[in-house]
Design a protein that fits this description.
By secondary structure, the protein is of the alpha+beta class. The chain contains 22 helices and 22 strands. It has an 8-stranded mixed β-sheet with strand order 5-4-3-6-2-1-7-8, covered by helices on one side. A hairpin with a 5-residue loop joins strand 9 and strand 10. Helix 1 runs parallel beside helix 4 and helix 9 packs across helix 10. The protein is elongated and about 105 Å long.
Length: about 625
């Protein structure tokens, strides 16, 4: 068969892995052993869940075989194996979502932090390519479970790959590395033992060394499931290495949760919260990376109902004796045992976060900065825990740079304040520059800045906190007169009457593009702003709806104007003397309000033309 080229992204990954991470090349063995372990997991589950299988006691193992004469190192397993198409899909292409993000992070990390690069390799499922760091060429011979034929995949890691028919007596995969002349240390048992102990000691299948000199089985690893050991027997380094080897996340674990429960339902869980967010944290298909085992037999790593999506930053393993091996995926989705375990795990995780919040502010802030936006999804999705999550949530506000809890906000509320005021926007800068904020700042009323898209959604089903109603400062009519300490407070009703001719004139000019024009009591420096009606859709929710549905038009809103602004004074003067300029300025005012929200003018050409005319008229 003719040689096939690598896909462009695959070639880029190979180039980075081979040429930029050379000093950390020993991790190639960790990655190949991990792949073998996964393959055995899949085969063992397939056999044990098949009631007709007669081979229940298969001797699963991973072999490391060296041949100094040929200068080759082979990693051999009796896992599920691959057919021709599997080899193409798994080794010739990177058939995963987020390839672009992966490459960007890998290229950025190679010059920054080698440890990040190593974790990226395992996390993104491209660990196989690390083999080319130590090899001139790699050959993969594999025979898939249920098949009598085998295939060979070979490559030098540069010019592409070749696939052809091959022979293999048993089901499984052999990865044969033709080592570079400078890498002969990887043929020495002591070197291999050092690497296996460092990275793969917890692999639950025996990793055995063969050099052709002895028939005795030389097992290099402990070969026991780390999560089944007592916590007292596991060091921090061992937890960290299991986290890294199992694709738990980037860097080191920020929080490690090892728990054993016995009673009505029995299970053991070893869960990690990583210190850095994964590249695909906000992908629609991202779910918690929790591997499910039944009595140490791997079942699945794609079961969504072990933990909810708002905990998708969690990684680890869950092992229970309360599941049958032959249970179908559909039955797993509705398993009462898994529902009880899920409920217990959620409670355990939330309690751990509460402890961290109370005991280690710096560490909790690190967690919140990485995963807070995801955790808040639980306020919207999980009625049982929404108050717990609200208590754990932090927000920026108008009173300072530090994020605060809702309890902090309530403690420092104005003595006459009955509501929790907020503004939902895309960025902090947008909030700080919003005209809606002006009166609140002048009266020293704190306003929360809600900058995550999920904030707009959870507010729809959580309208208060500790009896204080959430109120958007961009929606409805907010009376702030109660916060004025001076006795000669200007009466808004007087202003409304005084400037009725102006507001009516602007409304007439703008027609149906606004529902009303009224005098504002919260604008101080700005000339105008747009406000949703009491029953209307908040501006941020409207923006999200438009992103999801291009045909969504939204509803016209209320234009509020500042009668003390010089622009309004000018417009009052020309209302009758120059109706054409008044009409044009009314449209400019509306576009100003739109620009302040981060939107383009409704008619960009008209806006630019009128601004140019106004500038040149003053020249």
């Amino acid at each position: 068969m003719n040689k096939q080229p690598f896909e462009a992204d695959t070639g880029r990954v190979l180039n980075i892995v081979i040429n930029s991470l050379y000093s950390d090349k020993e991790i190639f063995l960790r990655e190949l052993i991990s792949n073998s372990s996964d393959a055995i997991d899949k085969r063992r589950f397939q056999r044990l869940s098949n009631e007709t299988s007669s081979e229940q006691n298969h001797d699963y193992e991973i072999k490391i075989e060296v041949s100094p004469k040929d200068n080759t190192l082979s990693i051999i397993d009796n896992g599920i194996g691959m057919d021709k198409q599997d080899l193409i899909n798994s080794l010739g292409t990177i058939a995963k979502s987020g390839t672009t993000e992966f490459l960007a992070q890998l290229e950025a990390s190679k010059a920054d932090d080698k440890s990040k690069s190593l974790n990226l390799i395992g996390q993104f499922g491209v660990g196989f390519y690390a083999a080319f760091m130590v090899s001139d060429s790699v050959e993969v011979i594999s025979r898939k479970e249920g098949s009598d034929v085998a295939f060979s995949w070979s490559s030098d890691g540069v010019s592409g790959f070749e696939i052809k028919d091959s022979k293999r007596d048993d089901v499984g995969t052999t990865v044969k590395l033709s080592l570079k002349k400078s890498e002969k240390d990887y043929l020495k048992r002591d070197k291999l033992v050092e690497i296996v102990k460092k990275y793969s000691d917890h692999i639950q299948f025996p990793i055995r060394f063969f050099d052709g000199k002895s028939d005795e089985k030389d097992t290099l690893n402990d070969a026991s499931a780390i999560w089944m050991k007592p916590k007292s027997e596991i060091s921090k380094d061992q937890y960290n290495e299991f986290f890294s080897q199992s694709g738990g996340g980037f860097g080191q674990p920020l929080i490690t949760l090892h728990n054993k429960a016995e009673g009505m339902i029995s299970y053991t869980s070893l869960l990690f919260i990583p210190e850095m967010k994964p590249f695909d944290l906000f992908h629609v298909d991202r779910s918690p990376k929790v591997k499910l085992y039944a009595n140490r037999v791997f079942i699945t790593d794609t079961l969504d109902n072990v933990l909810p999506r708002w905990l998708r930053f969690i990684n680890g393993v869950l092992d229970t004796s309360d599941l049958n091996l032959n249970v179908s995926r559909e039955m797993l989705q509705h398993s009462p045992a898994l529902r009880r375990i899920s409920k217990a795990l959620k409670k355990k995780i939330i309690n751990e976060l509460k402890k961290l919040k109370d005991k280690d502010n710096e560490k909790y802030n690190k967690f919140w900065n990485e995963f807070g936006a995801v955790l808040k999804e639980g306020i919207y999705e999980d009625t049982d825990h929404k108050l717990d999550i609200l208590n754990l949530s932090k927000f920026k506000s108008s009173k300072g740079d530090d994020e605060i809890y809702l309890s902090n906000y309530i403690e420092s509320m104005h003595k006459k304040q009955e509501s929790i005021y907020y503004i939902a926007v895309d960025t902090i800068e947008q909030a700080l520059n919003s005209p809606h904020l002006e009166a609140f700042k002048s009266k020293k009323i704190d306003v929360l800045f809600l900058t995550d898209p999920i904030d707009t959604f959870w507010l729809s089903n959580q309208d208060s906190y500790e009896g204080k109603k959430f109120v958007s400062i961009t929606q409805g009519s907010i009376d702030l007169s109660n916060f004025d300490e001076k006795k000669d407070v200007k009466n808004k009703e007087d202003d409304t009457k005084k400037y009725k001719e102006l507001t009516d004139g602007i409304k007439k000019s703008l027609g149906e593009t606004v529902t009303d024009v009224r005098i504002s009591d919260k604008l101080i420096d700005s000339a105008c702003c747009l406000v949703a009606s009491d029953n209307g859709m908040d501006v941020q929710m409207e923006k999200i709806m438009k992103l999801q549905n291009k045909d969504f038009k939204g509803m016209p809103r209320i234009l509020e104007v500042n009668p003390n602004h010089s622009l309004m004074g000018h417009m009052s003067k020309i209302l009758k003397s120059n109706p054409k300029e008044f009409d044009d300025l009314s449209k400019i005012v509306l576009d100003h309000a739109r620009l302040l929200e981060g939107h383009l003018p409704s008619d960009v050409s008209f806006y630019c033309k009128k601004i140019n005319e106004l500038i040149t008229a003053k020249a």
